[in-house]
TrEMBL record:
Protein species of origin: Brassica carinata (Ethiopian mustard)
UniProt-recorded name of the protein: ATP-dependent 6-phosphofructokinase
EC number assigned by the record: 2.7.1.11
Site label Important for substrate specificity, positions: G200
InterPro entries found in the cross-reference section: ATP_PFK (IPR022953), PFKA (IPR050929), Phosphofructokinase_dom (IPR000023), PKF_sf (IPR035966), PyroP-dep_PFK_TP0108 (IPR012004)
Residue numbers annotated as active site: D229 (proton acceptor)
Keyword Lipid metabolism tagged: no
Amino acid sequence: ATAIDLSDPEWKLKYQRDFEERFNIPHITDAFPDAEAIPSTFCLKMRSPTYINNKDRVLLKVINYSSPASAGAVCIDPDCTWIEQWVQRAGPRENIYFRPEDVKAAIVTCGGLCPGLNDVIRLIVITLEIYGVKNIVGIPFGYRGFSDKNLPEILKVVQNIHLSGGSLLGVSRGGPTVTEIVDSMEERGINMLFVLGGNGTHAGANAIHNECVKRRMKVAVVGVPKTIDNDILHMDKTFGFDTAVEEAQRAINSAYIEAHSAYHGIGVVKLMGRSSGFIAMQASLASGQVDICLIPEVPFNFHGPDGVLKHLNYLIETKGSAVVCVAEGAGQSFLENTNAKDASGNKVLGDIGVHIQQETKKYFKEIGVAADVKYIDPTYMIRAVRANASDGILCTVLGQNAVHGAFAGYSGITVGIINNHYAYLPIPEVIAYDKSVDPNSRMWHRCLTSTGQPDFL
Ligand code: ATP
Ligand code: MG
């Protein structure tokens, strides 16, 4: 984004123009101005109401408030007048830029598991079939599968895959370089690539898109954001998040029952959230059974006079039991930094849940108070469940729209739900940084109200 000079009377115009340029989505005709536009038959086949016009927009953000802090955003306009930001609406287009019979589509899932992956794969395959695509392959085990000799056809096996969690294709981290991936695509004649994954996967997808443009390959690369943490920018939510919160609530309930049924019981639940505490916050709020919620965005003191341990002692004295819900990325400063990285180059985090369990036991022993500490890490149980109803619907629409976007000739894009409508966004804008919980937001304060926890500072 360009710096804004508020003294410039034209600033709002320039701000809007800058926004529109950044969120303009790349199209095949940028590199191939002569690419043929073919009339789509999709809506006719599906008896679907209408095509989406390329000029249709979805409202990303409307800002009009007098107290910026309470809105959880920075007010750039001193007069606090309207600023509207519109992005491109997703859906089937009247003109398509690929002949279905010429399409060889590939689907790849990378990173960690997330409820709904199979639902998205299924809908991508089904929608491709409706367009008339015969040639669909699955890339096994993430980007690394591009180095495999034979790619399995996945056309006929998708019918019931959404009934179980996981990914039909398998997932992985790390793998070949972008050059090797694009070599493999070129060799196999893959001209549509659907990429399901998080920020790392999307960075890869964007690099693949750029490499294809550089090599003048007419390819559509379309992402579907998969992050159980809900840490992708601009979107209302990502698929799997809702399911994760629901499952997390079960773990919290178990911790609560264990804590409640034991003499001076303390239940500790560690949930996903490497840099963003959305799952911990939402699950704490939803359950109403959490006394202390700790997230990466909000620093806390552990041992001090106003620390977590003192408060636990207070809870044991007053309530007789306590439940702690901690996001995996919280309190990393208390843990030894190993500098270890996973195959994708992500930092390996220390286990804050185990740390809390051990320190709590130690503390109560030291002060001579009985405490029965139980630790639950439901991470892999949550990630592996099948999507719930609302995520199932989200996945269905995202999968369909990914295919519509590719046929419409867009590439280097991803699809998301924004203000309850579906939109296409350029990949770089959604991975510029991780979306995180705003400690000044009303939602975080609602969580604090629900737990009744102090500031721990
Ligand atoms: P999760 O939310 O589960 O962490 P992720 O997509 O962020 O999902 P990663 O393991 O970080 O998961 O990355 C997935 C794939 O993307 C890996 O195969 C990795 O090699 C590749 N990748 C990550 N970052 C980049 C990048 N900047 N450029 C190209 N490829 C990348
Ligand atoms: Mg990631």
